[in-house]
Amino acid sequence: MTTEHVPMDRLLAWSCDDPVVRAEASPTTDLPAIGLQQGGRRALAFLRPTHTHGVSLMLRGDDDLLHDLVGSAPFGTWLARARAKGADGVTLPRSVEGLGGLLPQVRGRWEFMSTTQAPPLVPLTGAVELDEDRREEVQALLDEHNPGTDGQPFARPGQRWVGVRDAAGTLLAVGCCEPEASGAPVLSGITVVPAARGLGLGRGVTAELTRRAVADHGWCTLGMYSHNDRARGVYRSLGYVVPAEWSSGRLG
Known about the structure:
Helices cover about 30% and strands about 30% of the residues. It has helices spanning about 10-15, 20-25, 65-70, 75-85, 135-145, 200-215, 230-235, and strands at about 5, 35-40, 40-50, 55-60, 90-95, 110-115, 125-130, 160-165, 170-180, 185-190, 220-225, 240-250. It is elongated and about 65 Å long. The two termini are about 25 Å apart.
């Protein structure tokens, strides 16, 4: 069993079409991934460029093989190259968050979710498409009611923002779907103002964004902080599944 370097444009096939690799690994990254395989088991590490958290490492695969991989001399060499490429964060499977001292302090625990099924249509009274002219309005809502979100209104091409207004025109809920650095469609910024929570607006916005993403791309993804039980219930009810649970922070 030896380590191998896998070009990023071959990594999805090497990982047996792992949805995490499909969503998080950019084929254009010039540092090959590093991996181990034994029988049907695999472990790998790759650079993960993101829109909002810079460049980090992501490790994925069988827990025992991940220990073997991180303990190998080739991994140390690869890690030095990853740092030279600007990697200063790391995301590890929750089950091995102490792996190799890579993550000395957990800054966030979150779940990767995805679906290939379009959810049923959820009627939304007051639903609107939001264009770039509404950027300041959307940002103000996020700043007040969801300051920790990764949503960045109209910061990049390809974003689709959907909102819900009341009869007076006040914005009550928003959400976005955009291409991740890998090209995968990812939801972000799903936010409902406190006075309108419990009315199904977040569910309706999520369903609308998901339906379009599945129609256009064949699937949709999102990342959810693990403490958000209410959101988890909504996403699961719309057909999302959890292929991975993560711990993230600065690279040790």
